[in-house]
Amino acid sequence: MKICWPVLFILLNLSATARQFDAAGSEAQMQGLTDRQKVLFINQNFYALYSADFNNAKTLAEWAAANAAANGWKQEEAYAQMNWGIVTYLSGDYEHVQEKYFRALAVFEALKDKAGIAAVNNEMAVFYHKQNELDKALACLAVAEENAREVNDLTRLGTALAHRGSFLSRRGKIEEAKPYYLEVYEIRKKTADSVGLGYVLLDLSEVALHEGNLTQALNYISESSRIRQKLGDKQGVAVNLVTNGEVLLQAKK
Q1: Contact 160, 144 (CB under 8 A)
Q2: CB neighbours of 248 closer than 8 A, spacing ≥ 6?
Q3: Of 10, 48, 92, 239, which shows the fewest CB atoms inside 10 Å?
Q4: Is the separation of the CB atoms in 79 and 103 below 8 Å?
Q5: Which residues contact 204 (CB under 8 A, 6 or more apart)?
Q6: For residues 196 and 159, is the Cβ–Cβ distance under 8 A?
Q7: Would residue 133 be called left, alpha or beta, if left means φ above 0 and alpha means ψ between -120 and 50 degrees?
Q8: Do 23 and 54 meet the contact criterion of CB atoms below 8 Å apart?
Q9: How far apart are CA 41 and CA 230, in angstroms?
Q10: Per-residue DSSP letter, 96
Q11: Could you tell me which of 63, 71, 32 has the C-alpha nearest to residue 46?
């Protein structure tokens, strides 16, 4: 049997990184922490948690939201509710997504937390777009952009712009999406946002392929894969491997 050593190497290293945030790894990291510290750990590492172990992340988000609410930790509760909404959305349980986002939004608005308002509106935009409610999705992005710019939150601004590009791309308007992706790419580099870079590089690979530049498209995917490997994002690396194969297959047609 022929072994694909580069892929095997990626998967082995990925497994070691992911174990830090799976059920056992996250439990070990939270050992000895106070409940509030645990909630903060879950909120701050949520991408790594759901990338490593989706079901565990969902359980932790629910626990964090309930614990923060019970103790009156408003900002922590809002982020935990938003994270719980994210995994609820990703699991396909669309009926119960909005209640979590609305709760998070209400708390953020009460706190006048513009960064939080931007963050949850970005997530709500994705939800509405999935439900084919484009007007609501774009309205959420407008709120997200406005609030992110007011507090110079480049991370949330980059996410809002990335969503605008994505919405255009899905309607076949890839050339219109390109300027958004390029701006997002610069923002992600400036803020050293590895998670965001992993996403926007895939967006740019789509643009490169659309423009007939196969080599550049594959390079973008490869760079995204290296980033996601370091993050321990098992799902992301798997998606990239599939995307790489699809690009090569499309190029042969």
Answers
A1: yes
A2: 218
A3: 92
A4: no
A5: 181, 182, 185, 220
A6: yes
A7: beta
A8: no
A9: 19
A10: G
A11: 63
| pLDDT tens-place string over residues 60-94 | 999 999 999 999 999 999 999 999 999 999 999 99
Query: Each residue of 204-217: pLDDT tens digit?
Result: 999 999 999 999 99
How many C-beta neighbours within 10 Å does residue 113 have?
A: 19
Is residue 142 exposed (0-12), middle (13-18) or buried (19+ Cβ within 10 Å)?
middle
Pull the structure tokens for residue 125: 């935009």
Contact indicator for 241, 225 with CB cutoff of 8 Å: yes
C-alpha angle 139-141-143 in degrees, rounded to nearest 5: 75
The model carries a pTM of 0.85
Q: CB–CB of 23/32 below 8 Å?
A: no
Which residue type, as a one-letter code, is found at position 61? A
d(CA 23, CA 42): 12
